[in-house]
């Protein structure tokens, strides 16, 4: 487990990634001693989040707690008295604290007050793009392969004994398009009576937009300071939230497609679950203060599962104490709500996983067995593989002359602008009737580039990019494809040769073909910051389909409409944003079958039943075709039937999380402020090191500082949920060379249901100088169930 962060993760790399931008406004001198402004917030004030843990909202009252309650009330009222209107939010259901406009000095002084855990500037989880929003819009407006989804459904959910109809999935995202048929309530029973949420009203949204499927919709707005144009409404003006909600719990819609592409049935992971949308993101990003307000509301509203396809960028990951997702999730989990988050799109680079706090179920992405190949055919039969979704109006593989944008540059054009196919940088007569090879870089938006080429009379575009990735782009203006820079070199030499003619051939791989494209998008775990320097927990926990996913879209998006056609009702997107709601849906189904299970039992069921092979039964490989490791996919790809009946579960208890907080550096008094359920006898271990954290009762195992000299051992405790009372589970170990792994005892004899038994795993080196991290697994079986825990040994 490590420190995690926040933002909307759609698409990999250059695509939609919201990250936290903590803007360091320079405090102007005017703020100090600004007498005429006394009692008001001044321009130099900014929003700070004052986090005061949950002790003050706890229902159990002791002297300690009531004094904390007083601290909270006093602090809040002193801020209110000094600064009317400064308080933006008061958090009071799931945890306690507030968000308010404060000066630097005020924030600093509040941080010293009793009962305050942390005070931090309101972070903005933002779209992580060097490209314009226009690019983002187009890219995230990507599409979803309906066939993909139906295949996903086949693969991931071939057996549903329950459709999760009594569970409520809360989604923090960009809002929802309630008219989408995926949110109809035709076959849905009455709204669960425990639901206490609401359907907020605005000029384009009212209670009649909610129904038995979409049972709640709230919006938050601290957006005025962001200069964004977001409307005050739960309505989704971006599309992302509708897409995610449809993937988590959309009703089955046969015949869904994006203009015929990816046709099939669009269906959510838990089609019977109810949806509650909490709109915390706008095109400017997602405010931490809004996210915390949504957690606070969702806890009071009565959701069962929370799904967050957002986070910070890995490079701006905040400390645990300043991380609104980690904080909100802690309190949600403490109150029995499972929290599922996307791991971010930072891969394939190491240590880019975010949302890694051990109480969160962190989801990476895999591809599905479908790909949108758009190849470039050169003269002489040479085929260069590319990726792009086909909306070609070119008939029958026509052949066109090819030109490199650089050599079509105007005489006064900047070389870089020409290579990037920017406006006013290329000569129309050199482009007209040709397929143009463009570089991508800087702020250029691919759809902007395509528009530019089209305006000059070009007929197609080939983009050469450093990391082509696996997600196909939707380009509606001209046929286009993405290839690697390496392949681009080949095209360049080809252009230098005589014939110079080419075409782009699109093919959508269909179900019949053995594709085997299901490999993970690598998401390496982030090793901890300076204070926490070891791998103490394996992240991501699990992977789920996240590439080219078809799901509902906002209904009025002309920017992704084919010329002359109505806006699409479904769209295809890629990213861990899309993977996360698959798992949220499955978590809801597990909860529905096992209503008493804790979030950690649900997570355990999902992790221990994951698959390590793709749809062809072949072990997962990475994008580079090397064998994938748990660093790439956690425990593996989620399955849908396995988690419903896992046999054994690892229950991670509050004390485990408190130990993590000790390890993180909090003292006992802070921990007592944070958590409402600190056992009386709890103290932080004196030697709270990484080895200690390896013993958190987590369904996966991570060992750090393994040096080849000494053994390490960890303890785990499993709960028998096999349902047959008496049963015997035996351990099998898959260990890499260089390592001996011993499980003690090798058999666990359960005499009744829900009995808990412990075991130890001893990891001993067989070589004195292990060279690289090692991976393996411990699996318990009783003939009927297979309960697998992956392990990683960090050296
Ligand atoms: C909700 O909005 C719709 C469309 O604007 C309108 O027809 C309907 O009367 C409104 N319902 C309520 C309860 O305000
Ligand atoms: C959103 O902001 C507007 C203008 O600042 C305000 O009138 C409205 O009440 C706010 N809505 C919510 C839900 O906070
Ligand atoms: C193509 O030809 C140009 C000029 O003739 C030369 O500068 C360039 O290096 C050549 N490119 C390749 C990839 O051969
Ligand atoms: C693109 O897709 C359309 C519709 O599926 C198909 O008719 C057309 O042949 C395809 N174009 C190419 C060049 O593959
Ligand atoms: C789509 O609907 C939203 C919300 O009502 C509105 O703000 C936006 O302007 C609409 N866009 C178009 C292209 O009509
Ligand atoms: C990936 O590796 C396997 C075995 O190492 C090989 O058979 C296969 O052809 C490779 N695939 C690609 C696309 O390179
Ligand atoms: C982290 O380390 C820095 C010094 O490297 C120290 O100042 C800080 O207090 C430490 N934080 C925690 C949470 O231990
Ligand atoms: C594992 O570690 C525990 C605690 O350090 C110790 O009590 C136990 O004997 C160890 N077990 C083995 C097999 O080394």
Automatic annotation (TrEMBL):
Can you list the GO cellular component terms from the UniProt entry? Answer: extracellular region
Q: Name one GO biological process term.
A: response to symbiotic bacterium
The Inhibitor I9 domain covers 47-128
Molecular function GO terms recorded: serine-type endopeptidase activity
Position of the signal peptide: 1-30
Where's the Subtilisin-like protease fibronectin type-III domain?
695-793
All copies of the PA domain together span: 400-491
Which residues does the Swiss-Prot or TrEMBL record annotate as the active site? 173 (charge relay system), 240 (charge relay system), 577 (charge relay system)
What main location does UniProt list?
Answer: secreted
Q: Which UniProt keywords apply?
A: Glycoprotein, Hydrolase, Protease, Secreted, Serine protease, Signal
For the Peptidase S8/S53 domain, which residue ranges apply?
Answer: 164-636
UniProt record similarity statement: Belongs to the peptidase S8 family.
| Annotated protein name in UniProt | Uncharacterized protein
Q: Which organism is it from?
A: Malus baccata (Siberian crab apple)
């Amino acid at each position: 487990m490590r420190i995690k962060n926040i933002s909307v993760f759609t698409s990999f790399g250059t695509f939609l990634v919201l990250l936290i931008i903590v803007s360091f406004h320079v405090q102007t001198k005017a703020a100090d001693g600004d007498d005429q402004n006394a009692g008001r917030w001044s321009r130099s004030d900014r929003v700070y989040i004052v986090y005061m843990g949950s002790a003050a909202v706890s229902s159990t009252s002791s002297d300690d707690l009531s004094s904390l309650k007083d601290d909270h009330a006093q602090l809040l009222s002193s801020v209110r008295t000094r600064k009317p209107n400064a308080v933006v939010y008061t958090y009071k259901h799931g945890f306690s604290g507030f968000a308010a406009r404060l000066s630097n000095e005020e924030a600093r002084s509040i941080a010293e007050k009793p009962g305050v855990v942390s005070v931090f500037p309101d972070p903005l989880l933002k779209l992580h793009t060097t490209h314009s929003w226009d690019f983002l819009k187009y890219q995230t407006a990507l599409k979803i392969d309906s066939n993909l989804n139906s295949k996903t459904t086949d693969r991931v959910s071939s057996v549903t004994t329950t459709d999760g109809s009594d569970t409520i999935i809360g989604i923090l995202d960009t809002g929802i398009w309630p008219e989408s048929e995926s949110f109809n309530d035709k076959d849905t029973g009455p709204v669960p009576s425990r639901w206490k949420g609401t359907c907020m009203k605005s000029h384009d949204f009212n209670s009649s937009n909610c129904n038995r499927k979409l049972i709640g919709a709230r919006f938050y707005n601290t957006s005025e300071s962001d200069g964004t144009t977001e409307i005050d409404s739960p309505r989704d003006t971006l599309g992302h939230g509708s897409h995610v909600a449809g993937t988590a719990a959309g009703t089955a819609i046969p015949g869904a497609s994006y203009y015929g592409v990816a046709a099939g049935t669009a269906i959510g992971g838990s089609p019977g679950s109810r949806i509650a949308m909490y709109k915390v993101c706008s095109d400017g990003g997602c405010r931490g203060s809004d996210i915390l307000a949504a957690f606070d509301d969702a806890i009071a509203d009565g959701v069962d599962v929370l799904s967050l396809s957002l986070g910070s960028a890995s490079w701006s990951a905040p400390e645990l104490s300043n991380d609104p997702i980690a904080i909100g999730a802690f309190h949600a989990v403490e109150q029995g709500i499972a929290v599922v988050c996307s791991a971010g799109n930072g891969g394939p680079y190491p240590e880019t996983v975010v949302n890694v706090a051990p109480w969160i179920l962190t989801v990476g992405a895999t591809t599905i067995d479908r790909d949108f190949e758009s190849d470039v055919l050169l003269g002489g039969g040479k085929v260069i593989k590319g990726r792009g979704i086909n909306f070609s109006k070119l008939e029958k593989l026509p052949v066109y002359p090819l030109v490199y944008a650089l050599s079509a540059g105007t005489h006064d054009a900047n070389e870089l602008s020409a290579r990037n196919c920017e406006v006013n940088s290329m000569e129309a007569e050199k482009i007209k009737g040709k397929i143009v090879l463009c570089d991508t870089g800087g702020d250029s938006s691919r759809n902007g580039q395509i528009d530019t080429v089209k305006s000059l009379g070009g007929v197609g575009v080939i983009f050469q990019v450093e990391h082509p990735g696996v997600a196909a782009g939707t380009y509606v203006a001209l046929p286009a494809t993405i290839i690697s820079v390496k392949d681009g070199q080949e095209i360049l030499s080809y252009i230098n040769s005589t014939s110079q003619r080419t075409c782009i051939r699109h093919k959508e791989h269909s179900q019949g073909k053995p594709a085997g494209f299901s490999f993970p998008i690598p998401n390496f775990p982030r090793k901890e910051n300076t204070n926490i320097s070891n791998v103490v927990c394996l992240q991501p926990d699990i992977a789920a389909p996240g590439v080219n996913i078809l799901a509902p879209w906002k209904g009025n998006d002309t920017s992704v409409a084919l010329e002359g056609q109505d806006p699409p009702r479904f769209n295809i997107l890629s990213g861990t944003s899309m993977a996360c709601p698959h798992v949220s849906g499955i978590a809801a189904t597990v909860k529905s079958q096992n209503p008493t299970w804790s979030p950690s039992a649900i997570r355990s069921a999902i992790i221990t039943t994951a698959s390590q092979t793709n749809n062809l039964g072949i072990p997962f490989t990475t994008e580079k075709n090397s064998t994938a490791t748990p660093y790439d996919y956690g425990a593996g790809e989620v399955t849908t039937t396995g988690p419903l009946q896992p046999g054994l579960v690892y229950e991670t208890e509050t004390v485990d999380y408190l130990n993590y907080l000790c390890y993180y550096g909090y003292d006992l008094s802070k921990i007592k402020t944070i958590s409402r359920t600190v056992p009386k006898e709890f103290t932080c271990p004196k030697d709270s090191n990484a080895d200690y954290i390896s013993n958190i009762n987590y369904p996966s195992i991570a060992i750090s500082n393994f040096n080849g000299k000494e053994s390490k051992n960890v303890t785990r405790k499993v709960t028998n949920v096999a349902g047959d009372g008496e049963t015997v589970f035996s351990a099998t170990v898959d260990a890499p060379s260089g390592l001996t792994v011993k499980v003690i005892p090798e058999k666990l004899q359960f005499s009744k249901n829900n009995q808990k038994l412990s075991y130890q795993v001893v990891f001993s080196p067989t070589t004195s100088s292990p060279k690289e991290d090692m991976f393996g697994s411990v699996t318990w079986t009783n003939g009927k169930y297979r309960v697998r825990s992956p392990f990683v040994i960090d050296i």
